[in-house]
Design a protein that fits this description.
Shape: flat
Strand content: 15-25%
Structural class: alpha/beta
Strand order of the largest sheet: 3-4-5-2-1-6
Largest sheet: 6 strands, mixed
Number of helices: 14
Number of strands: 12
Order of helices and strands: EEHEEEHEHHHHHHEHEEHEEEHHHH
């Protein structure tokens, strides 16, 4: 746990040079930072234009806008000061150096501002994860999904479920502890189980989304596979619109799996270029072929690329993986190719770009169909799914007791269900997952 005496500071805007550099300070000495550099503290939440000096009466650092957010009404729940300076490297470095010379201040670690917001109750754990996803969102659909989590999409629903569990548990325990009291109804187990049954149905419905929330967050995986020299790497470069894969006339050039992230119609797609699949004695190429098979079988969609001028077969991939046949090198045909269809079989030329717009449009439609409704999914991480499944398991055990069941067992299972919801939002026993979540944040967030 971070000491409450620490006051942290960091650049919270983009890497310089930028138009404006935003430097944030959070902690009990944030006010002292303003007084030292700006000479005065502005009114709360009102911007003030000031001259920054490295100490009172010292060298001029910059002309900047300062803001003051006293605790607890700040993003972190602590006193927060903000300096909006000119975004040159020298200016930002000078202000950061001046802050570092103030007693009690130190540079922030990655994610430390957000972690303090969590520890001070400004964000729950699902909102923290939503913020992380928002920072790294690459497409419009991912942005919308991440913002829903940041705004409390899952956290608020989990809090409603948690309160319902507390009420249900109170009913059961009242029946146990005060069964001899005249003002306590004889039958309290029934209403508690009815609440548990309704809640279970809601959670099961949230889980029955075919993992679309996670798929949108991670991106639809499309593997380019096929025999050697079919033009897989050339097709990869065309789709990526840059040279990401080496292209040569020699078979076996691609040895490892190459990944590229694309935005197709607002939906994220991870494109994989794999090694040519063939029998070989080269041990390095054998490993590349093995990885190609493995990634193709795990992909959401396989583009099986073949040379239209050669008989290379249609290829077979793992059960459950959809495969589209992509006939490449149509520029070598003497006559016009058969018309392309949206999926299943397409004719293209990675050299000239013929047929590529149709292929890209088909991939965009496929991504939209596969991820339809994912933005509104409550569950966006495997951690969420595991916790909610444990809640359902506990509710199932409670419901199995029935109206005439053992009240102490029902009360314990409701308590366990509530504990799992607490772990989901970060209310209880989550120290083991905090470092994993915050380690991927950038400094200044």
């Amino acid at each position: 746990m971070i000491s409450e005496r620490d006051t942290i500071f960091a650049l919270s805007s983009g890497r310089p040079p930028v138009a404006i550099g935003v430097i944030r300070v959070s902690g009990p000495r944030a006010r002292a930072a303003l007084e030292t550099l700006a000479g005065r503290v502005p009114d709360p939440r009102r911007a003030r234009l000031v001259r920054l000096r490295d100490r009172p009466g010292g060298d001029l650092l910059d002309q900047a806008v300062t803001l003051w957010f006293p605790a607890p009404n700040s993003e972190t729940g602590e006193d927060v000061a903000e300096f909006q300076v000119h975004g040159g490297r020298a200016v930002i470095a000078a202000v950061l150096a001046a802050l570092g010379r103030i007693e009690g201040l130190r540079p922030a670690e990655p994610g430390e501002f957000t972690r303090r917001a969590f520890e001070n109750g400004r964000l729950d754990l699902t909102a923290v994860e939503g913020l992380a996803d928002l920072i790294y969102a690459e497409t419009e659909a991912q942005r919308r999904q991440a913002y829903r989590q940041l705004a409390g999409g899952l956290g608020q629903r989990a809090e409603v479920w948690r309160r319902q569990l507390i009420e249900a548990q109170a009913l059961v325990e009242a029946g146990i502890d005060f069964s001899d009291e005249s003002d306590v109804p004889d039958e309290l187990l029934g209403p508690a189980l009815a609440t548990a049954r309704t809640m279970r149905a809601e959670i099961v419905a949230a889980l029955a989304d075919e993992n679309r929330g996670e798929r949108l967050r991670d991106g639809l995986v499309v593997a380019i596979a096929g025999p050697p020299n079919a033009g897989k790497s050339s097709l990869m470069n065309r789709l990526a619109r840059r040279d990401v894969a080496i292209v040569t006339p020699h078979a076996g050039t691609t040895r490892d799996v190459i990944e590229v992230h694309l935005d197709l119609g607002g939906y994220p797609v991870t494109l994989l270029d794999t090694a040519g699949i063939r029998e070989t004695q080269d041990p390095v190429e054998v490993e590349g072929v093995r990885r190609a098979h493995e990634r193709a079988q795990a992909a959401d969609l396989v583009l099986w690329v073949t040379d239209v001028t050669a008989d290379q077969g249609d290829g077979e991939q793992g059960a459950g993986t959809e495969v589209w046949q992509v006939r490449n090198k149509i520029d070598l045909l003497g006559s016009a190719p058969a018309p392309c269809r949206a999926g299943r079989t397409l004719a293209v030329s990675a050299l000239t770009g013929a047929g590529l717009p149709e292929l890209i449009a088909a991939l965009a439609r496929h991504a939209a169909a596969a991820l339809a409704g994912a933005e509104t999914s409550l569950v966006t991480r495997e951690r969420h799914r595991v916790a909610l499944r444990k809640v359902v398991d506990a509710l199932d055990r409670a419901l199995a007791e029935g109206p005439g069941g053992r009240e102490d067992i029902v009360a314990e299972e409701l308590r366990l269900a509530g504990r799992e919801l607490g772990r989901l939002t970060g209310r209880v026993d989550v120290e083991d997952v905090l470092d994993v979540i915050f380690r991927d944040f950038c400094i200044g967030k």
